[in-house]
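Researcher: Next entry in the queue.
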Amino acid sequence: MKKKSVIMLLSTLIIGIIIGAAAMNFISHRKFKSFSETPTKENISKKIVRMVDPDEAQLKQIQPVIDKYSEKAYILSKENMGKMFNSFDSLYIELKPFLNDKQKQNFEKKINHIKTEFGK
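Model: Structure for this entry, 120 residues:
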């Protein structure tokens, strides 16, 4: 009887851990995906529409305003992305004398991945 209770408790614990891990993976993946989307005018516009949640009549009225500010936000994000890439390049130039060949290769690989992911 005691053995059966212990097995039931352990299996319940294991199932709970698995369900919790799966839920956290799902939630964090969705949040990371929305965070890591490449900023485009369309993505920015969609986010604004989701924040405002307008009805159809309102959407027709506010769409020009949303488009205007989506364009501004897109331009700003591109400018800042360029500044960030320049900063990474400067960082690499200053770090390069202190890094071994493997570290240099890893750094270059990761920076190139970031640049291609966010489209310089």
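Model: The chain has two domains: 1-36, 38-120.
Researcher: Noted, moving on.
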